Amino acid sequence: MVEKLTVIFFIVLCLLLGFYLILSPWDTLFGNWAENYLLVFVSDRIGIPTLQKTVASNWFRGAVTGLGVVNLSIAFWEAAHFNQSVAMLKGTNENVGK
């Protein structure tokens, strides 16, 4: 039972993180991506003002969105191979290789 819950929580974590990483760079629901207080503070503190411009660029936003797509892919793969993941956590080989 613990193994099944572990896999379920991992799938939910990957789904939530994936959706957040896909939406957060482009939507203002989570705040303005380029004017994050922590980002401004860190770029001023370490003396690299181009850090804020780099994080605000569309290339960086696309990379973060790509990480979100990878997380969603992992979640869907884990959901499709649920029994295999549970068997691996249990330490049995009943579904490995199917």
- The end-to-end distance, rounded to whole angstroms, is 21 Å
Give the tally of β-strands: 0
Largest sheet: none
Q: What is the residue-mean pLDDT, rounded to a whole number? A: 86
Structural class: mainly alpha
Strand content: under 5%
What value does the Rg take, in angstroms?
19 Å
Proportion of residues in helical segments = over 70%
Summarize the structure.
The chain has 98 residues and is mostly helical. It is built from five helices and no strands. The chain has helices at residues 2-23, 37-46, 50-56, 58-80, 82-90.
Write up this protein.
It is a single chain. The chain is mostly helical and 98 residues long. The chain has one domain. The chain is 72% helix and 0% strand. It contains five helices and no strands. It has helices at 2-23, 37-46, 50-56, 58-80, 82-90. The chain starts with a helix and ends in an 8-residue tail after the last helix.
Provide keyphrases for this structure:
5 helices, 72% helix, mainly alpha, 98 residues
Question: Which SSEs are present, and which pair or pack?
Answer:
Layout: H1 2-23, H2 37-46, H3 50-56, H4 58-80, H5 82-90
Helix pairs in contact: 1-4, 1-5
